[in-house]
């Protein structure tokens, strides 16, 4: 990487160098195609100027997202989360019917559908053609585009400013972060509010939760970085909530001419004490990554050596990173997934078949590695028959546990 994706200062410094992997959502039609996919470096860097933690190599966004298969509506826990988010936004801001709500990275329209049901005028922006089509079928108008300031100008010209701009787990994906935040600022009306959710880099580094590092995630944010990035475009972070998604995330509220509340001040102090400002919170991150990956390998390889049949649960992007770093792919027979778009395909790199949950219910394995560990309670409910029949779940994070 020659420059930071946020501030454009040259030569971010290395943090941890992971094994190269294919794009994590590029499931293939055959195992041979899956294993032949190109692998790209997966090196984590930190900008010494603005503090943003980011990938050293950025894969072309169109290659990553034009046939993106991650569908929000296929994850019940995430649907519930977005329903609660919509309720929170509507209640806090007192949004009336007819309010204009725009979402960046709107996926299949799940989040916006909650606002549409309340009579609001919604618009999604997403580059994935199949997901945008699904959103349209659900009654959520969607513009197929990679959002930036020019796209924002076009929306304003056609339908005016937005009362709310949502960006849930999307600014981690973009290559030109400054252009996206500039676009959010242009899209908002004078009294509008941006609500942004993003994985929090502090617990990721402290707990060694490295499997959120994959090519779709260009950057990994602290509140310090977000506050400064929004301020450059006249937006003040006025509130922040710490939420459980993605192993620990931030929900940031920003608007013009606002004052930060106590939650913002307190979390900035926590980050400062942890070493976020000078980057020292990243010390030892690489060692933690290696320990987690090696321990998972030892457990799975040992079970396989005993003749145990091992499967996986959750053919997510995170699974590809964890497979690539732990090297357990050759030991897995299959991975179950609740998303029908993925069933019948093969995981990038290892070429593991993705099957529906019926395979789990048939008790075709002794152990299952839970890649969707951040939805552990939902997985346990779905796997109750498997466990009742004597099967065991392996949860890699936050501490490796064999149920």
Automatic annotation (TrEMBL):
Its EC number is 2.1.1.-. The keyword Kinase does not apply. Keywords: Methyltransferase, Transferase. It is an enzyme of class 2 (transferase). InterPro entries: Methyltransf_Zn-bd_dom_put (IPR013630), Methyltransf_Zn-bd_dom_put_sf (IPR038576), MeTrfase_14 (IPR013691), SAM-dependent_MTases_sf (IPR029063). CDD domains: AdoMet_MTases (cd02440). Residues 4-65 form the Methyltransferase putative zinc binding domain. It holds the Pfam family Methyltransf_14. It comes from the Bacteria. GO terms for biological process: methylation. One of its GO terms (molecular function) is methyltransferase activity. Residues 245-398 form the C-methyltransferase domain. It comes from Kutzneria chonburiensis. This is Class I SAM-dependent methyltransferase.
């Amino acid at each position: 990487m020659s420059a930071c994706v946020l501030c454009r200062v040259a030569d971010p410094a290395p943090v941890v160098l992971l094994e190269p992997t294919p794009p994590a959502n590029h499931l293939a039609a055959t195992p041979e195609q899956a294993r032949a996919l190109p692998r790209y470096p997966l090196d984590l860097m930190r900008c010494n100027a603005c503090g943003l933690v980011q990938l050293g190599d950025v894969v072309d966004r169109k290659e990553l997202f034009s046939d993106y298969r991650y569908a929000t509506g296929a994850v019940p826990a995430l649907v519930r989360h977005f329903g609660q988010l919509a309720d929170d936004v509507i209640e806090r801001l007192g949004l009336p019917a007819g309010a204009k709500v725009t979402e960046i990275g709107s996926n299949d329209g799940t989040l916006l559908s909650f606002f549409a049901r309340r009579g609001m005028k919604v618009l999604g922006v997403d580059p994935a053609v199949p997901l945008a089509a699904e959103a349209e079928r659900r009654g959520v108008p969607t513009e197929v585009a990679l959002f930036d300031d020019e796209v924002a100008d076009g929306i304003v010209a056609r339908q005016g400013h937005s009362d709310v701009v949502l960006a849930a787990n999307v600014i981690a994906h973009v290559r030109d972060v400054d252009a996206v935040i500039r676009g959010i600022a242009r899209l908002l009306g004078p009294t509008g509010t941006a609500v942004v959710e993003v994985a929090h880099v502090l617990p990721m580094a402290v707990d060694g939760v490295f499997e959120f590092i994959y090519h779709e995630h260009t950057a990994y944010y602290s509140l310090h970085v977000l506050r400064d990035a929004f301020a450059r475009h006249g937006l003040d972070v006025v509130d922040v909530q710490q939420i459980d998604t993605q192993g620990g995330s931030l929900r940031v509220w920003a608007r013009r001419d606002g004052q930060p509340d106590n939650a913002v001040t307190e979390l900035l102090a926590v980050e400062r004490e942890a070493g976020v400002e000078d980057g020292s919170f990243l010390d030892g991150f690489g060692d933690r990554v290696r320990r987690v990956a090696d321990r998972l390998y030892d457990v799975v390889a040992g079970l396989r050596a005993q003749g145990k049949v091992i499967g996986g649960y959750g053919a997510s992007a995170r699974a590809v990173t964890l497979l690539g770093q732990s090297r357990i792919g050759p030991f897995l027979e299959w991975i179950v997934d609740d998303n029908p778009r993925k069933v019948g395909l093969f995981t990038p790199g290892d070429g593991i078949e993705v099957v529906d949950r019926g395979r789990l219910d048939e008790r075709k394995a002794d152990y299952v590695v839970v890649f969707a560990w951040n939805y552990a309670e939902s997985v346990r409910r779905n796997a109750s028959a498997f466990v009742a029949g004597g099967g065991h779940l392996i949860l890699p994070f936050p501490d490796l546990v064999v149920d």
